[in-house]
Amino acid sequence: MDTKPRSIELEEVSIRFSGDSGDGMQLTGTLFSNTAALFGNDLSTFPDYPSEIRAPQGTVGGVSGFQVHVGHSQINTPGDYADVLVAMNPAALKANTKWIKTGGTIILDKDNFDEKGFLKAGYTDNPLKAEKLDKFNVIDAPITSLTKEAIKDLGLDNKSAVRTKNMFALGMVFYLFNRTLDYTFDFFEIKFKKRPLIIEANKRVLQAGFNYAETIEALTPVIKVKQAEIEKGKYRTLNGNVATAWGLLVASEKVGKEIFVGSYPITPATGILEELSLRKDLGVKSFQAEDEIAGICSAIGASFTGSLAVTTTSGPGLSLKSEAIGLAVMTELPLVIVNVQRGGPSTGLPTKTEQADLLQVLYGRSGECPVPVLAASTPSDCFNYAYEAAKIALEHMTPVILLTDGFLGNGSEPWKIPSMADMPEINPPLIPEGIENFQPYARNNKTLVRGWAIPGKKGLEHRVGGLEKDAITGSVSHDPLNHQKMVETREGKVNRIVKDVPDLEVEGNVSGELLIIGWGSTYGHLLTAFRELEAEGKKISLAHFRYIRPLPKNTRKVLSKFKKIVVCELNLGQFANYLRMNFQEFEFKQYNKIQGLPFTVIELKEHFIKLLEE
Amino acid sequence: MAETEVKLTPKDFKSDQEVRWCPGCGDHAILTAIQRALPELEIKKENFVFVSGIGCSSRLPYYVDTFGFHGIHGRGSAISSGVKIANTRLSVWQMTGDGDALAIGGNHFIHTIRRNVDINIVLFNNEIYGLTKGQYSPTSQKGAVTHTSPYGTVEAPFHPGELAIGAQGKFFARTIDNNIKLSTEIFIEAGKHEGTSVIEILQNCVIYNDKTHGYLTDKEYKDDRQIILRHGEPMIFGKERDKGLILDGLKLKVVKIGEDGITEDDILVHKANENNPGVHTMLANMRYPNYPVAMGVIRNVQAPSYEASLETQIEKVKTQSKIKKMDDLFNSGTVWEVK
């Protein structure tokens, strides 16, 4: 097929699979992504699913989507607008039409485009007749009926037969992108190992979809995306939540301390708890607690006992953990707290992304309660920063908060497999048995870190707790001057971590007209917007923060080299305000979005151009 | 199996901290009983961890010279669960009160019991909030007049034994602060029990709820108003040891030996190890004046602890899995090479 004269080559392409939340769109998207990754494309994915597991069928609220962006150069985002949309019903079409590029292709299941379907989706008449679809290349295939036809002799019941229709759509997309079906066939063999009939049905339907697209080839040229030029090495795809879990696992192996994870399921963070629970083979002790508070408190207990302690959550869960984070600060015990942010406040938008927990993680506790904060910037970057969070926690005897979000946690991208040997060492300040004059709150003069004296070690018996401690003995103290000293010590201890924080890097020139500032998951979009504008000759640069507290020591220097600074974030300006507080001499402009969605490259570029022209 | 080569003494478990409970507080006697019980367990001192939440009872870890963790209000069970699961060799003791365990910490209390994590929960029950100076607690009697119930409470109290057994508790015992000998005996048995042990101690708050258990401690009547249960022995009580308990239909009944043809053989024999919680619940719920209040180990049933089951599962998965280290995990599943 590679020789087909009609095929065209694209630099990159975005595909959005969309249907009812029960239509298997997440799986369809994942199978396509894995096939593309195996072919050697760089890619980025973003699942977009409703918070109700089975929202009313056929309604816009129940639409589940999965967008994948593949290309032969570096792919940083799942793509703003899709080149191809697969819409399994009218609701999926309605929810996604605005996200399709003009001239893009829409594959839809004609069988579901009836009066009933239009009504449920909220269309007043047949959308296929509306003029607004003229700007797209619409392929209306009778997917449901062809699916049933392809497997009618297998004797499956109607429900099971119809359930395979997502594979028909996938087969069509494979044809469009000139991909082989091998990976998906293998997947069926493993997934349905004990159900040969289901394997056969899925294989046939997938092939039928592929063949159907080939048969109607007149409708669209076959699209080829070349292999990406990627650094040599071994790769796999990884989503942000799994990457976070793996980063922690690597830290555990490196330091030789078991992981204890105490967590309560919460969207979109649950994936981390699930992945860690799976890793009993690596000795993980996973504890699904009765609530968020028990999650963190059990982890604090395990930390006292000498484990690499972890608790994972999302915004509302972090609110519940606030008091216990204070306890971990007071007792100066290592703890990794992962907050996979979602739209808030309150229950908010559980399945959508947002960066509005920043001030909560920095300040949302009683008393003077400093905690280091890191923010991962891409799905695979979650691996590095989970490792870094564990390293800082263990070496500096402090809770550390790692911020990711729904976009990173569920998004995936190819990841170059590291070697354990390449990971930096982790050296916690363990107190050896038999030490003389042991004082639990004696500390290292340079780092202000106290020692870790673990139960079971003779002669190290001591008491910790939430009450203020005497600076040396750790006994309860209400002495006013001691309290001031301890508050300043805890603050100083966190501030001194700056020594381990790498300098802030500037992408592009280190001086110029406009510095774009971002943090966390907006990196891919900001980078793409920056590169495109830079290629157009604009004097623009990008500085993206991964260390929020402490801030990199060269931050002031970086900021001072630009005429304008714009802080872009998915909230009302929390990081901008934090920077204002720390660097009062600069003017920080803001670009904010709070829709539960990532930025689009297009809107960023438009805004930056406007700022440059002002 | 004994860990200690030379037997420790109660003195070994006294810390250098000044004990700050009110003079006459029942907590002093509880501390003494604990310091007497610990050496009998023959566990190394460094393998004890005392955990607590907030309240007068939660100060106790400061006074025992072991590893200690004074946590936050209500969360003692969660903290001690983490301690025990992370290192199963440790002997973990949680000090708590009626407010700490049953109000703010109620959720952790029942779930810890349900999981059967091997910790010893010592619940000081004085039916009042002492540290915050005299507000009613979840165990205050209905009608109790306190600073926050000046006209009497309108709430029904929790009964810790009923709650613990209802949450599938495998070990429940009750004692009273002034009976140091019985308390010591119970602590030793709880320490040896694998799984969550709940020990309710009827404790006197000399300042805010003085003599709330006075009807039980009164020398004149205490033998008639308390029954000390011992596994395998008939449930006999009374100053003259002439009263006993029998099962009358679906209820327990107090009878007098020698009356109505009742002999000692008719008296119920205490089986703490009976799996069915029916009689244990009834015993735990006995209240004066209709019944004597039960003391001693009411329920002591064997079952695998949470952490033992978890470790067994981990070992099994480790044996079966091909993934032994992170490099194996990195290279498992779909991996491709870019050359």
Mind sketching the topology for me?
The complex is a heterodimer of chains A (614) and B (339).
Chain A: E1 8-10, E2 12-20, H1 25-39, E3 42-48, E4 63-71, E5 82-87, H2 90-96, E6 100-109, H3 115-121, E7 137-141, H4 143-150, H5 158-163, H6 165-176, H7 182-191, H8 196-215, E8 223-225, E9 233-239, H9 240-255, E10 259-263, H10 270-278, E11 285-288, H11 292-304, E12 308-313, H12 315-331, E13 335-341, H13 358-363, E14 373-375, H14 381-396, E15 399-405, H15 406-410, E16 412-416, E17 463-465, H16 480-495, E18 506-507, E19 512-519, H17 523-535, E20 540-545, E21 547-549, H18 555-559, E22 562-569, H19 574-582, E23 589-592, H20 601-613
Chain B: H1 27-40, E1 48-52, E2 67-70, H2 76-86, E3 91-97, H3 98-104, H4 106-115, E4 119-125, H5 160-166, E5 171-176, H6 180-192, E6 197-202, H7 214-217, H8 222-225, E7 226-229, E8 236-237, E9 243-248, E10 251-256, H9 278-285, E11 293-300, H10 306-320, H11 326-330, E12 336-338
Parallel strand pairs in B: 1-2, 1-3, 3-4, 4-6, 5-6, 7-11
Antiparallel strand pairs in B: 5-11, 8-9, 9-10
Features:
heterodimer, A: about 625 residues, alpha/beta, Pyruvate-ferredoxin Oxidoreductase, domain 3, Rossmann fold, 3 domains, 6-stranded mixed sheet, 20 helices, 23 strands, about 35% helix, about 20% strand, globular, disordered N terminus, B: about 350 residues, 3-stranded antiparallel sheet, 11 helices, 12 strands
CATH superfamily of the largest domain in chain A: Pyruvate-ferredoxin oxidoreductase, PFOR, domain III
Find the CATH superfamily of chain B. Thiamin diphosphate (ThDP)-binding fold, Pyr/PP domains
CATH topology of the largest domain in chain A: Pyruvate-ferredoxin Oxidoreductase, domain 3
What distance separates the N and C termini of chain A?
A: 52 Å
Number of separate helices of chain B:
11
The stretches of 5 or more residues of chain A where confidence is low (pLDDT under 50) are 1-6
**Which class do the helix and strand fractions of chain B yield?**
alpha/beta
Quick one: how many beta strands of chain B? 12
Into how many domains do the coordinates of chain A divide? 3
Spatial strand order of the main sheet of chain B: 2-1-3-4-6-5-11-7
CATH architectural group of the largest domain in chain A? 3-Layer(aba) Sandwich
Order of helices and strands of chain B: HEEHEHHEHEHEHHEEEEHEHHE
